[in-house]
């Protein structure tokens, strides 16, 4: 089950579970659409994987399986690594 992390690893902008602006890689590294499409060029700086739109969990399922509250933020922001 996806963690649905609460913020962008680059800029720490909030990404609520229903955000259409969240992007993830296959390891669930999480970025906002602006960072993913901008400085990262659609690639995860951690693994080099493709960043895609994170699915939205339906409200009923979200109540049973809440989103993560753990924030992961890169100390120096993001730069394209690949």
TrEMBL record:
Identification of the protein by name: DUF1272 domain-containing protein
Native species: Azospirillum oleiclasticum
């Amino acid at each position: 089950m996806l963690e649905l992390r609460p913020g962008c690893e680059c800029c720490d902008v909030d990404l609520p579970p229903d955000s259409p602006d969240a992007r993830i890689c296959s390891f669930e590294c999480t970025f906002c659409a602006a960072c993913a499409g901008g400085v990262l060029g659609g690639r995860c700086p951690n693994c080099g994987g493709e960043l895609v739109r994170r699915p939205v969990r339906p409200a009923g399922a979200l109540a049973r399986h809440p989103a993560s509250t753990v924030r992961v933020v890169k100390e120096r922001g993001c730069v394209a690594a690949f």
